[in-house]
Amino acid sequence: AQEEAKKRRDALDEDEIRELQTLAKTDTFFLAYSILGYTKLTTKFHGHFCAWLDKTRVEKKVKNFQGRESGPGLSFDSNCREGEETGELLWLYRLTLLARSHFKSTIKTITGSVQLALPDVSGKEFYPFDLGTNIRVLLGHEAHAGSQRFLYEITGHFTGNPKLIALFPECVPNPRVQRINKSELELPRSSFWAEPTFDTIGVGGRSQGRHYDYIKLDDIFVDKARDSRVEKESLIQWFDNIQSFLIELKTSHIDVVGTRWSVDDVYSHMMKIYGKKLVRYIRRVEEFNEKTGKAEPVFPEHFPPESLDILRKNKRVWAAQYANDPHEGLAEFDVTWKRFYSRTPTNPVNALTPYGSLRWRLKDLDILILNDPAVSKTPGIVVTGTDKFMNVFILETVKREMSPMEFVETQFSLVQKYWPRAVCIEEVVFSEVYRHWLQREMLIRNIRFNILPYKPPKDKVKF
Q1: Cα gap 433→454, rounded to integer Å
Q2: pLDDT of residue 74
């Protein structure tokens, strides 16, 4: 590899070398495809993803006309004039969610890590992208062995990729001087740190005394955490503590890539906790094409429609691993069934349907109050009205924390508002908690209504 790299470098003049070095540092698709040899990447899908990575990497805070820096949650810089860049990157937290086998780890974890450690030959990069081999990167995965596999591939490029070595010979590590093992890779550098250039960790791993400029977490949530509440809570606690691994909270970065598994996975938690401070790139395996009016694969070269039809047969796996929308796999409800209606003072339901324009009063509908009491969690209540054509209209929903007393009070309030045919409550909870309570309240209030206890299907997962 060293000899071939020397031949390649000798064939280039200094201007060409510098231009290629700059491209490798600033153009993710060029580095991945042309230098690292990932030739299965496509310009349409992966090129778009790489362009987003490059764009977010160079976006900087600027002072806007309201006297604040651009970007949500950012503070005012009194030393910066309106419209002037502050010299700090706009984002610190970045999330990518793509379907499985779409080369997300190849691009963001492997190529991105190599790119982080390349020298800033243009002198235009900002921290931490300007550190070159002095950067300290932590690679995380659900299992430590997974992050070690990422490191193995990264090490292979720095030690055996002729194209990369030809452009950056100063980045080639010496096994006698630098640390090179399954868990660590140290590149030649001018600084002396306890941490290597690239370090690895698994979920739950500890890193006392070590701190990093950049943390990359790849597929840290898998089926084990999805199916175990204890595992999931332990993972989320570990993730919430990951910032303690950073050198400086104000400027160090956390970059996460993965695939959705459930509605309450760590990625959902991350979006909730970081809010608008988190930049996101989320795509499904199929997306709607406005020109054709159909849903088409984003990566048809590897996932043609006929292959997706097979994957789609397992709804739960399809929804989480490919659709990147775990809501699809939780019920037998097709989101395309959903329609919208309007309300007027005289007709609470006005809808356009295949049967024509419909206008219904409440007394024209078969009304039910459906309850998921969830004594230990937030209860959910849905009021439905069904017309003679079997169209089901959602009249009202209630989803909030409430005590059992408030839950009972809500039942009577909704009954007096809609006068339903029945109030449906899960049988076990009704029998053990609410039966005698509701019966007593009916006598006291002189308001009676029909209660239908129901048994939830055994094959349904409750959240």
Answers
A1: 14
A2: 37
Question: Would you say the CATH fold of 339-454 matches that of 2-283?
Answer: no
Helix (H, G, I), strand (E, B) or coil at 395: strand
Which residue shows structure tokens 């700059």? 22
Say if residue 386 is exposed, middle or buried (CB neighbours under 10 Å; 0-12, 13-18, 19+).
middle
Looking at residue 153, its amino acid is E
Which class would CATH give 2-283?
A: alpha beta
Does the reported pTM lie above 0.90?
Answer: no
d(CA 409, CA 450) in angstroms, rounded, equals 16
Mean pLDDT across the stretch 245-259? 91
Of residues 372 and 97, the one with the higher pLDDT is 97
Q: Determine the 3-state secondary structure of 357 from DSSP.
A: strand
Name the phi and psi angles at 62, rounded to 5. -135, 155
Greatest CA span in the chain, whole angstroms? 95
Give the whole-angstrom CA distance, residue 165 versus residue 4.
9
Fold of 339-454: Nucleotidyltransferase; domain 5 (3.30.420)
Domain range summary for the chain, segments of one domain joined by +:
2-283, 288-335, 339-454
When pLDDT is cut at 50, 70 and 90, the band that residue 54 belongs to is very high
In sequence order, what are the residues at sequence separation of 6 or more whose Cβ sits closer than 8 angstroms to the Cβ of residue 316?
329
Q: How far apart are CA 21 and CA 15, in angstroms?
A: 10
Amino acid at 339: R
Q: Which residue has the tokens 């990157």?
A: 89
Q: Residue 383: beta bridge partners?
A: 369, 396
Whole-number Å distance between alpha carbons of 308 and 314: 11
Residue 198, classed as helix, strand or coil, is strand
| Residues 6 or more apart in contact with residue 77 via CB below 8 angstroms | 61, 63, 69, 86
Helices 229-240 and 266-274, axial angle in degrees (round to 10)? 40
Report helix, strand or coil for 164: helix
In residues, how long is the chain? 463
> How far out from the chain centre does Cα 200 lie?
21
Task: Evaluate whether 59 touches 52 at the Cβ level (below 8 Å).
Answer: no
Q: What are the phi and psi torsion angles at 237 (to 5°)?
A: -65, -40
Question: Given the DSSP bridges, would you call strands 392-399 and 422-426 parallel, antiparallel or unpaired?
Answer: unpaired
Please state the φ and ψ torsions of residue 51, each to the nearest 5 degrees.
-65, -40
Residue 102 has a pLDDT of 94
